[in-house]
Amino acid sequence: MPRWFYQLASPRWCYQITGRLLPGFAIAALLLLMIGTVWGLAFAPPDYQQGNSFRIIYLHVPTAYMAQSIYLTMAIAGAIGLIWKMKVADMVAKSCAPIGAALAVLALATGAIWGKPTWGSWWVWDARLTSMLILLFLYLGVIALNSAIESESTAAQSTAVLALVGLVNIPIIKYSVDWWNTLHQPATFKVTEKPAMPPEMWIPLLIMVIGFYCFFAVVLMLRLRNEILHRERRTSWVRELLLQMRG
Amino acid sequence: MSAFQTKKLPEFKPDLESESFSPGKILLATLKRDVKLAFRRQSDWVNPLIFFLMVASLFPLGVSPEPKLLSTIAPGVVWVAALLSTLLSMDSLFRSDFEDGSLEQILVSPQPLYFVVLGKVISHWMMTGLPLTLMAPLLGVMLFLPFEGMGGLVLSLLIGTPTLSLVGGIGAALTVGLRKGGVLVSLLVIPLYIPVLIFGTAAIEASLTGLPVAGHLALLGAMLVMGLTLAPLAIAAALRISVSG
């Protein structure tokens, strides 16, 4: 194991390093999201079939990506916490759940808004939508379980087991559009192929996706730092830090 | 020498080769114990069955008593009712063992937990899933399900309900240490039940329309195999966490 992996286990070190990384990610997120939004909503060419209504893709695709990636992050952090009994990993997993749930709601909401003009209805019970809804339910289950258990370490371990069990759903969402014949269009980006859209349409989308990843990093770090301070509130370094802050 | 020095206990060496450690024996012993316990406390397995019957009879009263409509919604209604009554019975899987302390004894015993858990889940299925499956044709008749659909109904429930017990066991194990587990178990487990529900009802629909059923049943079977191999591991891990916390 490399040294930084062990250092991550120390809440204090983690608090310091996230404090240093935070401004960079915040600026990157702000810039990328601004550029992506303006480019996507104002300057990208309209779709030949869907006209301007397709522009919601610049919010829908990134939020849907994030909802899945955050679940994966949560499950991996939970597994690390279970295996190496790493407190910081437990805190990362706990901080991920509400962010992921919020972005899953956004993905479903933007999807519904997009579905109305293109499919003629807010909601269809097809594979992609249903599996995305299950993902939201899984997030809600994780949050409910975490808040029901009083002991922090037991809560972290139990939710990690639940998150790992729920991991079964991620490949189902990912490949639902390939496995089943559904109304939902296939994936926008694939690693092996060129996107079906012209570059002036997919470049802003890519910028939005990267921007959302940075945004997630920022929110995660903020929540994580809060969680560290809360759990370590009895240690001397947190007390000193709070005294310094008060001046 | 101090007066408090205790006699040294003989070292405990489990004879792992002995008969009592063979997986089959452990599984069978757990199964026998749990089935016997269930028969002594009949409300545990009779109540979910009555619930199953009651939920299904709500639909003709609540939606419409018209046979044509009922026969179209019958597969889904029977499956949802089966799923809910399995959920209802899930809490009893580990609860009484946890309360009287025998769960802790199981956890500290040298026998592999995997087979004990598997035995408990199989006995749970024998007391809930199996009776539900056997009673399902009656509900099918009540809801005007055509005769062609009966085979699909029974087969899909027969393959699907063990998966429900296995997956529900994970939820029950995660919440066994909590005083109020009831609603929480449902929140944790229902999302994981959805795939079973989809393929279960799809199998009945297929048999109604004369399409091949084997594909849906094979997928249900695949889920069952995956549940049988992986769910006991998750249940065992969850039990250790819940009981130690």
Automatic annotation (TrEMBL), chain B:
Topological type in the membrane: Multi-pass membrane protein
Pfam families membership: CcmB
UniProt keyword Mitochondrion present: no
Subcellular location: Cell inner membrane
Key words, A-Z: Cell inner membrane, Cell membrane, Cytochrome c-type biogenesis, Membrane, Transmembrane, Transmembrane helix, Transport
GO biological process, one term: cytochrome complex assembly
Stretches that traverse the bilayer: 45-63, 69-88, 129-147, 153-176, 183-204, 216-239
InterPro entries hit by this protein: Cyt_c_biogenesis_CcmB, Cyt_c_CcmB_bac
Keyword NAD set for record: no
GO cellular component: plasma membrane
GO MF entries: heme transmembrane transporter activity
Described function: Required for the export of heme to the periplasm for the biogenesis of c-type cytochromes.
Family the UniProt entry places it in: Belongs to the CcmB/CycW/HelB family.
Record's protein name: Heme exporter protein B
Gene that encodes it: ccmB
